[in-house]
Amino acid sequence: MAANLTSLAPELIACILDVVPSTDLQRTTLSLLCVLSYSSVPNWRHYLFYHVQLRTPEGVSKLIESFKRDSGNAAFVQKLTLASWTVDAKVATEAILMLPKLKWLSLCLGVSFTPAYLQKLLQKPMSDLRYLSLRLRP
Fold first, then answer.
1. In angstroms, rounded to a whole number, what is the distance separating the alpha carbons of residues 5 and 126?
2. Based on the domain organization, do 78 and 58 belong to the same domain?
3. Among candidates 84, 79, 83, 115, which has minimal Cα distance to 99?
4. How many folded domains does the chain comprise?
5. pLDDT of the chain, 138 residues: tens digit per residue
6. Using CA atoms, how far apart are residues 110 and 84, in angstroms rounded to an integer?
7. Which domain covers residue 133, as residue numbers?
8. What is the pTM of this model?
């Protein structure tokens, strides 16, 4: 007799998500939440927001809107990858500064990221930050 995903115990779902690489965790959690109820995925906010990966300027705006609706979600973000060369520097800076527990930050910076925005971004101490990657587009 084959068991389906909906018959798995929430604890087992959590164990599975614990071994998913952080680069795949956001998409995997979203996929599970489409199939299962939120109560079937324990600590779903932790898994959904642990490593946020944004590839479009619209994604950054939606993330800010999400954090404004529920500011507690920003505390779950420990890793942020922003891979959109065309994102507005002001919007991206605002999003990053909303993340109080950021440990890992990878940014692809387009021409709108002037030194003033980088200074604003790095002016606030990020005491938990352990990894910083900046890719500059000429």
1. 39
2. yes
3. 79
4. 2
5. 456 788 889 999 999 999 999 999 999 999 999 999 898 999 999 999 999 999 999 999 999 999 999 989 999 999 999 998 888 999 999 999 999 999 999 999 888 888 899 899 889 889 999 999 999 886
6. 8
7. 50-138
8. 0.88
